[in-house]
Amino acid sequence: MERATIVVVTIIAEQALESLLVRDLDELGVTGYTITDARGRGHRGVRGSTSAEGGNIRCEVVCTRRLAASILDHLELAYYEHYAMISFVTEIVVLVDP
Description:
By secondary structure, this protein is of the alpha+beta class. Helices cover 26% and strands 45% of the residues.
């Protein structure tokens, strides 16, 4: 096995956006992602799966830097002005078959 350095895009967003995010990720060329329920507290207050506003999701996409930049650009234009969302990119090292 070899090691490769790539990135993971993490998106924490309102649960109501899940189907829209999945559609957008597909259109951007994402081939895989993981989505889980998320809860916590931020500058918009406490959010959990039982909150009146609905819960949050955490979506993670392992991808290239170029695709990560495209994802962030799209999220900023499509969602940031009107929805509770945070996204960030983390460099990771993965094991790959040569």
